[in-house]
Amino acid sequence: MSSPSNAAPQLPATCVVWDPALTAYNFGPSHPMSPARLSLTAELAGQLGLFDRAGVTLTEPYVASDAELLTVHEAEYLEAVHSVSANPHAVAERGLGTEDDPAFAGMHEASARLVGGSLRAAEAILDGSAQRGVNFSGGMHHASRGKASGFCIYNDAAAAVQRLLDAGVQKVAYVDIDAHHGDGTESIFYHDPRVLTVSLHESGLSLFPGTGFANETGGPEAIGSAVNIALPAYTGDGGWLRAFHAVVPQILRAFRPEMIVSQHGCDSHRDDPLTHLGTSVDAQREAALSISALANELCEGRWLAVGGGGYNVANVVPRVWSHLIAIVAGKPIPLRTEVPLAWRERVSATFGSEVPALMGDDVELWWRSWEVGYNPADAVDRAVMATRKEIFPLYGLDPWFD
Predict the structure, then answer these.
(1) Does residue 278 sit within a domain?
(2) Cα separation, 278 vs 363, whole angstroms
(3) Angle of CA points 398, 247, 335, to nearest 5°
(4) Residue ranges of the Histone deacetylase domain (predicted)?
(5) Which of 224, 227, 310, 327 lies closest to 270, judged by CA?
(6) Is residue 366 assigned to a domain?
(7) Largest CA distance in the chain
(8) For this structure, is 108 an active site residue?
């Protein structure tokens, strides 16, 4: 009989996409999507030693080709992006040149590089060089086949999903926990039963893009492939995690994906300036841990995570996405880990704001599991039940008990 091993568990081979060139995706100094959130995340992750971990490969993105972009976007739309990229003063069309998506020189290359980052991570998983991948610069989930929207020009997550399908993956689950409905990704795959899109977001009654209600369930040939949990404004950690755990694990287990692609916009945070939810860094870390566990349970660990929204540039985004990188790489950072002093001093000097000393928000995470019962007087429970009633019977599940 062999003696028990005290060796640490093997960490998953992980492809992390980063290059400073990704900050060229820049709508200007007054736009809320500041590229500084990307460089600050990379700096914090680097100082935490995440890029130097065993099994982690730091990979540069590339500018996705037109052929790759055409797998999820219309040719006429690509022509429009090329046009305003070369001449930002061209006539605005297809959502370009708006307040949300102002045109800038080099827009095409900057946007296509985000796509190339997610495609590179997907390829690493497909060729077996990595089990997992993360492109925190990606997550441009509002871009549809033929239009820019909500700070998003090209949809890198959709392109990655399509690459997986084209390579022979039979079923992909896309899980989106951004505060905004993942409308672009959903629309691209709305008629494809091979792709399950799940979006947990603030209700369209109070937040852009005004879509993502429980009755949006997929096209006629793919009913049940779109799952939307539209939460009331001001939902905090307990309600947000209750909703996640009351829908996402059950539906993913019923769908049985071969691969999970997840979008981790962190604008549901209580300090985000653009939304009305009230989550903490701790809750968003908890959701990422749950997605990691589902990838291990259902997909032999195969998981591609991308970034997304998040507009508290210094205090929130870098901590959330550093947690995400650590979780994808198989070894979470404890919430009471100190934020490196050198990073805090650099941020304070640059942004003039006090940065939290810990990697978490020091909250007590607690949520009611669905098993304790449905409360019709609770707005979150009503939102969850609306989704469960629409979707669960399509998978042979009981909306009241499963």
Answers:
(1) yes
(2) 12
(3) 145
(4) 31-326
(5) 310
(6) yes
(7) 75
(8) no
Q: Assess if residue 5 is contained within a domain.
A: no
* Four-point Cα dihedral 22, 136, 264, 123, nearest 10: 100
- CB neighbour burial string for 77-103, b if at least 16 within 10 angstroms, e if fewer: bbebbebbbeebeeebebbbbeebbbb
**pTM of the full predicted structure?**
0.97
On whether the CB atoms of residues 264 and 320 are closer than 8 A, the answer is yes
Alpha carbon of 392 to those of 125, 248, 296: distances in Å? 31, 11, 23
Which residue in 61, 392, 97 sits closest to 246, CA to CA? Answer: 392
The mean pLDDT value for 287-298 works out to: 98
Q: Which DSSP string do the residues of 14-45 spell out, in sequence order? A: EEEE--GGGGG----TTSSS-THHHHHHHHHH
| Residue 213 contacts residue 175 (beta carbons within 8 Å) | no
Q: What is the rounded CA–CA span in Å between residue 141 and residue 183?
A: 7
Please count the structural domains in the chain: 1
pLDDT band (50, 70, 90) for residue 7: low
Which domain covers residue 128, as residue numbers? 14-395
The catalytically annotated residue of 73, 108, 141, 142 is 142
| pLDDT beyond 60 at 6 | no
CATH of the domain at 227: 3.40.800.20
